[in-house]
Design brief:
By secondary structure, this protein is mainly alpha-helical. The protein has one helix at 2-76. Residues 1-46 form the V-SNARE coiled-coil homology domain.
Length: 77
């Protein structure tokens, strides 16, 4: 009888340890999710800035090509 009581107590301790591990995993998962969302937003902003900069450079190159052509055509008339 004493052996059965000891086994039940050991199982209870094991269940407590398992519950603690589950709680730790849950808090770790929440922290990971928050960091992943923050990183996703950071990369989204960085990507948008890169697109804006690329568009501005492309526009400047196009203007650098078109403006001299237009000026030379007007000056030859």
């Amino acid at each position: 009888m004493q052996e059965n009581v000891n086994r039940v107590m050991e199982r209870g301790e094991d269940l407590d340890a398992l519950g603690n591990k589950a709680a730790d995993l849950e808090s770790g998962a929440l922290q990971f999710s928050q960091r992943a969302n923050h990183f996703r937003e950071y990369m989204w902003c960085k990507n948008d800035k890169l697109k804006l900069l690329s568009s501005a450079i492309l526009l400047l190159v196009i203007l650098a090509i078109i403006i001299p052509i237009v000026i030379t055509k007007h000056s030859t008339r």
